[in-house]
Specification:
Radius of gyration: 15 Å
Number of domains: 1
Order of helices and strands: HHEEEEEEEEHE
Helix content: 10-25%
Structural class: alpha+beta
Shape: globular
Strand order of the largest sheet: 1-2-3-4-5-6-7-8
CATH topology: Lipocalin
Largest sheet: 8 strands, antiparallel, barrel
CATH architecture: Beta Barrel
Number of helices: 3
Oligomer: single chain
Distance between the termini: 33 Å
CATH superfamily: Calycin beta-barrel core domain
Length: 174
């Protein structure tokens, strides 16, 4: 697990070369509204999430202004649920959609809120600082086809190769 987290940190920091994509972020983010549980609907493949389904991220705003991050999911290969606990921060209030996330010591990676449902905070498109990282997140385990297509169109317009997305298996809500 520790080696996976170290690899995650290196990858999120942008090690290696990558194609250009537009990583401009949303102009406003109400952090307290953004907190809570998000379901991973789709992602690019990464070793740190390989074989994972039912993946969620839960964010908690701390009194210090930092954010507690708990990523969890079911690892099919290992046959068990796993959890990674990290931290996030908003380094520049003038760029509220550009966060930094760490799961290992002081190694921070980029967490860019590229698109966000401004009315209900029900879905988001997240990327790193290169074309290697992309996530579609939702407050519910499933997204409507219309919202999925909206996010895919936005990602394509930014230069992401959406054909590389892996659609994450989530439990259906009762």
């Amino acid at each position: 697990m520790k080696s996976s987290l170290l690899l995650l940190s290196c990858l999120l920091l942008g090690c290696g070369s990558a194609s250009q994509v537009s990583t401009h972020t949303v102009k406003t983010v109400d952090l307290p509204r953004y907190m809570g549980k998000w379901y991973e609907i789709a992602r690019f493949d990464h070793s740190f999430e390989r074989h994972m389904r039912e993946v969620t991220a839960e964010y908690t705003l701390l009194p210090t202004g930092k954010i507690r991050v708990v990523n969890s999911g079911y690892n099919v290969k290992k046959g068990r649920y796993t959890k990674a606990i990290g931290k996030a921060k908003q380094p520049n209030a003038e760029e509220p959609g550009r966060l930094k996330v760490s799961f290992f010591l002081w190694f921070y990676g980029s967490y860019n809120i590229l698109e966000l449902d401004e009315e209900g905070y029900n879905y988001a498109l997240i990327g790193g600082d290169n074309d290697k990282y992309l996530w579609l997140l939702s407050r519910t385990p499933q997204l409507s086809d219309q919202v999925k297509q909206h996010l895919l169109d936005k990602a394509t317009a930014r230069g992401y190769a959406i054909k590389k997305l892996i659609w994450v298996e989530q439990k259906k809500q009762p």
